[in-house]
Fold each of these.
Amino acid sequence: MKTFRSILSGVDDWERVVLLDNARFPQYARRSLADIVRERGQDAFDAAFDILQGYGERVREPMVIIHCYSEALQRAAFGNALCMAGSDATTLAPDGPLAGTVFHGAYSWASWFFRFMVRETGILSPAEAVRRLTGLPARTLGLADRGILKAGARADVAVFDATRFGETATTFEPNQLAEGMRHVVVNGVVTLADGHLTGERAGTVIRRAH
């Protein structure tokens, strides 16, 4: 495992690998692996293995965040005309059965992309940023009735304040709603009005046609 080149070891800087909040080793939470190994006097891999071993069969429970992309890399990648923005973040909700679930980026990736690429760097226009987040993914996935406003398409509409739309979530407080979103219509049903959830649910699962 020590010789395997992975995204974890490939950063070549254990200061950029940070252990998140966890129940078994709270004394190491929010600290870099480099900081942890200095205290423990261990190799970084051995320290990581000890933390994993401390969880027994619940080895997937301890999580880290890796600060592997610089702002320069983000500008270059997201600014490329062929780049389609996306995230592996699980869709979550502040209420219901998923309210207690944490996944970094779930509440922030799209709003961060818009804020960073439009307002902070000016690399993309508001219209192009929206296209990268909606129409381009829909076209790439072959969803002809989504991602664009036109007659016959699904009535999914998001209305936001382009001067305010952005993330409020942080590394250690990730479950924070973005700000600046005004109204959301899903399949013709208003689910967010004036920034407040209406309680209506109209989303459906997208299934692959056979």
Note: Residues 14-66 form one domain.
Amino acid sequence: MRWLAPLGGLGLVLAVAAAPQAGRAQSPVVVEFFTSQGCSACPPADAFFAELAERADVVALALHVDYWDYLGWQDVFGRAEHTERQRAYAKANGERTIYTPQMIVQGENLLFGHEEGPVRERIAAHEAKPERVKLALRRAGGGVEITLEPAGGAVGTAEVHVVEYAPERTMTIEGGDNQGYHHTFKNVVTSWATVGRWDGASSVTLRHDADLGEHVAVLVQRTGHGAILSAATLP
């Protein structure tokens, strides 16, 4: 068995290797939505993202950033680490700037968040690709047990992320460019932990021991903010 390397202090335990459960559906496509309550261009994209969040074939995650807070309203969901993740994507793809609203599809396609057609097209294109990683999840105590197996040969080194999110947060913006904007924000990311690295070639089962909430997604992503190889949510 090859080892999945833990990242310090995150409570990850490697378990006995095992195959994922049979009969799992094709992995959903991950859409990361970089948005801000202080961004005047974001409300139309917020509405489109709310639609994506209802799709069973999509793992839609809203990462609110903090770089618009100076305009008069501090996004209550904004986090500096979300901004850093967006910057890392830009660097990995040779981009000089970051912006909102932006949607990144399956870790590969950096798109304007309000342009529905291109986003839908990229989701459909990724759904047509063969499965690369078999991923199975189950709750283990307060944490999660994650089983990984390459579906058709080695896929390269990857990182395993455990993401908690709030399905709905309704509020009214009380300042800044969007003052008076009332919206139910969907799938707001509340915590993001990179729990280990996988060699992409062996079958492993790992356990992330943490006090996880009800709504959790697990992403398997090629190292260096590359392609997302598989994703799943806990029931």
Note: The CA atoms of residues 165 and 206 lie 21 Å apart.
Amino acid sequence: MDHWITALKEPLDRYIRYVTVERQLAKNTIRSYEKDLEAYITHLVVHSIDSYEAVDRWLVLAHINEMRSDGRSARTTARHLSTIRSFHHFLLRERISTNDPTEGIEQPKVGKRLPSVLTVEEVERLIALPDASVLGKRDRAMLELLYGTGMRLSEMLALDVEDVHGTLGFVRVIGKGNKERIVPLGRLAIEAVREYVEEGRLELVRKTRTDALFVNARGGRLTRQGAWKLIKQYAKRVPIQKPFSPHTLRHSFATHLIENGADLRSVQEMLGHADITTTEWYTHISTTHLKDSYMAYHPRAKKED
């Protein structure tokens, strides 16, 4: 059985190198792909498959059905199937296999969920929480940047000091696929970053040599896990009762812009979306919020008790 695993694992390693080097996908996405495909390979080995040439659509369907039987959601199985489909397309292009067993298999239907969005008041309470300490100045600058620019947490943590141009009022962001975009900076974000850089960062960095804008207490670049934990703790103190992650600030940024009249193309550019249909989803969120507000506050909208 070991030689079966080796025969299936080598093409997987090539695929992971492909999505890492050529497609330049995010580390979390790559880890997700790897985890999904390792589970898929285990399924094939259990069914005595030692080559991708021997895989047929029924084996793929059996794997997806097993996931459903294990209680996996439609969203999870849909993502899993997309990963398997992409992998087999790669095998075809690389001539490792001559067939595509995913051809003709329909994606599980997934209802799109509206992401959680904060109110303006919740955002203001969140950003007001960090204290005047060195680390507090850093945390306030992070929160101001996340909400003030809509950038992803990973994009913010990858920033170097020279990427923020406070005088000109913009920040240079490197997004997915190593694509660069320029995002405007508001006054409050500029002030928070300037105060942190001038009064906090130097004390944290000390003798450490780093270009990183956001650093930890030891002077090294702040990690995603570290920043996520910090922001989550602040959210608990607000308190925010709805589902929350650092990405919630990105959703809030886009929704609040659209609610206040920003055009979709501008929001698309600031978020770094390749397709405007992704940005259009925030109009659905905005409409839902308007309806909720109407039903809650209009005197003739409420039902009688």
Note: The mean pLDDT is 87.
